[in-house]
Amino acid sequence: MNETYPPPTPRPSRSDVRTRLLDAASEVFLEAGYADARLTDVARRAGLTKGAVYSNFASKLDLFAEVVRSRTAEIAQRAMATVAAGAPMAKTLAEAVVGESRWSLLLTEFAVHALRHPELRSAYAQVRRAQREALTTAITAATAEDPALAERVAGRPEHAALLVLAAVSGLVLDRSADPAAVGVDEVAGALSLLLPAQVDGG
């Protein structure tokens, strides 16, 4: 009598493994914070071995940096699409501050950690640069549609992006400390004082 065996389980592709690791790492970092996150927990959450983590990422910092790049791009693309559809930029950013508050706090924690550990500063600088570039792109796109806005920005959308991003960082902390008093409307109102009226939909 011939025995039958179940077909072999296909080996996941490298891209699938990386995706699973990034998804799991995002959850673990959000739950534990950067300093306390363990690669063992990331591997377990992804249903993989710790060796799979190290075969795809050189270190916890390397994994975190990739998670940040991926998540930052995702948030920026979503926000830019919303603004392109006609939504006020201040309100869109405010909703991101409130809706992504846990993620923003994780970046704040990493910022403090990076300031105390010089080997992490370069990675954090890259994170902030990516955020500024995404916001600069959004502001530049808005100025292309409005000559009055272009005049107010005076050809320096990167400076406007720097100011707004700095404000967002502070608003994240205020929102975390007192969420009842710092909601979407309050954050949008604060940002609208910085953003030109045309960008804000005014």
TrEMBL record:
PANTHER family according to UniProt: HTH-TYPE TRANSCRIPTIONAL REGULATOR RUTR, TRANSCRIPTIONAL REGULATORY PROTEIN
GO molecular function: DNA-binding transcription factor activity; transcription cis-regulatory region binding
Gene3D superfamilies xrefs: Tetracycline Repressor, domain 2 (1.10.357.10)
Protein name: Transcriptional regulator, TetR family
Positions of the DNA-binding region: 38-57
Keyword Methyltransferase attached: no
Domain HTH tetR-type: 15-75
Keywords attached to this entry: DNA-binding
Organism from which the protein derives: Pseudonocardia thermophila
Lineage: Bacteria, Bacillati, Actinomycetota, Actinomycetes, Pseudonocardiales
